[in-house]
Amino acid sequence: MRAARRDANEDYLLRVAEQLGGFWVYAGPLDGWILHRGKWTPVEIKAPKGLLTQLQQRFMRDCETYGGPRYIWRTDEDVIKDLGGEWPRKYVLT
Predict the structure, then answer these.
(1) Phi and psi for 32 in degrees, rounded to 5?
(2) Helix (H, G, I), strand (E, B), or coil: what is residue 89?
(3) pLDDT in tens, 37-87
(4) pTM for the predicted model, two decimal places
(5) pLDDT-based confidence at 6, cuts 50/70/90?
(6) What DSSP string describes 40-66?
(7) 41/88 Cα distance (integer angstroms)
(8) What does the pLDDT look like over 17-43, one tens digit per residue?
(9) Which residues are CB-neighbours of 41 under 8 A, at least 6 positions away?
(10) Which domains, from first to last, does the chain contain?
(11) Rounded Cα distance, 85 and 52, in Å
């Protein structure tokens, strides 16, 4: 299930994640989940200045409280950092 409104950078960031070996599934309570190196992690994709909803903030706090992983991706640098890629970019996507 996908949210009605998607951030403009979502398709690009998911292509970067795929290039790094990630497998994406759209599922709540955030935008989706990424499977990378045998581990599922919830991901929220936001525009560079986008804000989390109250529900998203609560979920992120719960993850932090209980030691659960979670990612917020705003730029390709976030994806590369979280999935252990290399910089400078070797991922050229169109």
Answers:
(1) 175, -170
(2) coil
(3) 999 999 999 999 999 999 999 999 999 999 999 999 999 999 999 998 776
(4) 0.84
(5) confident
(6) EEEEEE--TT----HHHHHHHHHHHHH
(7) 24
(8) 999 999 999 998 999 999 999 999 999
(9) 33, 34, 69, 70, 71, 82
(10) 10-83 (3.40.1350.10)
(11) 25
Sign of the C-alpha dihedral computed for residues 5, 85, 87 and 72 taken in this order: positive
- Which residue shows structure tokens 């994406």? 24
Helix (H) or strand (E) segment spanning residue 71: strand 71-73
Q: Could you tell me the two tokens for 20?
A: 């790094």
d(CA 65, CA 16) in angstroms, rounded, equals 29
Output Rg (C-alpha) for the chain, integer angstroms: 13
Query: Whose CA is closest to 88, among 77, 72, 75, 73?
Result: 77
